[in-house]
Amino acid sequence: MLGISRRAVAVAAAVLATLAAGAEASRAGGPVAEAARTINVSERASLHLVRKSGSTLWLAGTATGTLPGTVTTRFNVTLTSVTGSLRIVTRGGTLTMSVSGKARSGGTNARFGGTMRVTGGTGKFSRASGSATFEGTVNRRSWAATVSASGRLSY
Amino acid sequence: MRFALTVLAAVAGVVLGAAPGPAAAREPVTLSASFPAGARLGAETPIRLRLAVDAKRLRSPVREVRLSFPASLGIATSGLGAATCRRTRAELEAVLIDGVGLAGCSPNAVMGHGSARAEVRLGAVPGAGPLVVPELARVSMLAAPFENDQFGLLFIANGVRPFGATLVFAGTIEPAAAPFGGTLLMRAPPVPTQFAAEIALTAIAFEIGAPGIRYRRPGKSERWYRPDGIVLPGRCPKVGFPFHARLTFEDGTQAETRTAAPCPRKGLRR
Fold it and tell me: What is the longest distance spanned by two Cα atoms in chain B?
């Protein structure tokens, strides 16, 4: 074999096979490494009450802004804090976030605010990370809420 | 009230005796918490709380009450406290205020009603035993504006007999460690009087989200509604709903007690 060992041929074949498989995966839309993208996010959500039990509120609604879509939330609300989770279904995937804040005023239309952090995602947000601050008001008779958030998101 | 204090202080001033001794340490305070018989898990219910001080063992007046309540109770998710009531710093320092009932506060700020019992001790001159007059009062717990990022509270006590004065005490809701969702703090400063009289709280009982609470609808019409009450969670903690109280007395001593409200029955499946 002109001085080329069988071992060298096997290695070359394996390399070619790997390259060919990569090209096929790329044509088929398979996993390809991409540079992370970071964007500023500004959102406004209008939420309505789905259910409440004890100190837990389930709210849902729509978000407009950088990531328009539908929002579902689960908040644990005490007189001193608001904690919970939030999920946005938007173009290209979903984002799941944890929420931590506190009430800023009482009365029928109570103000609240705090921070939220990305804890997971699907689709193009499967490796997302980021955080945001939010401010909102909630009507404590109807439990309709509006929330404005701004922050940075990498995905 | 002030006239009555004058008369009674004058009477008491002639009686000499020993000053109050130090506090005893054995279970000087008791706390009870319960839900009404018809309460159901997952449904709205009032909460009944009662705190009592054994004034024979603890002579020093209560200056601060800290009452921690369970995280799972839907107090914040109720409709209680649709308005807030602000009192001036001068009023809170004076404690005794003009006015009857809610003394000008909006009924939409009421979160609970109850009663209190106190000892009015008159003529506590060294070497004299004070003349002790028991006083009964109706108490309302109201929402107040946020104070330093904390939910504000007001307690208005309307004396029933024999004095009939109106007293106001400030409070807040502070964060609390699990399993509690917050701590209700009520400050009870000394009542400034020109006589050697002191008021010592011996018992307070109130019902948060009491059934009789009614709020006025916005607008000109006199229409009233019942605000959403406290919603119980669908499940009960194993040991019931825990409550804890810590009292601080004027002489610096503290006493604490805890209890658990028994679990109500499960609600009907919807």
Answer: 68
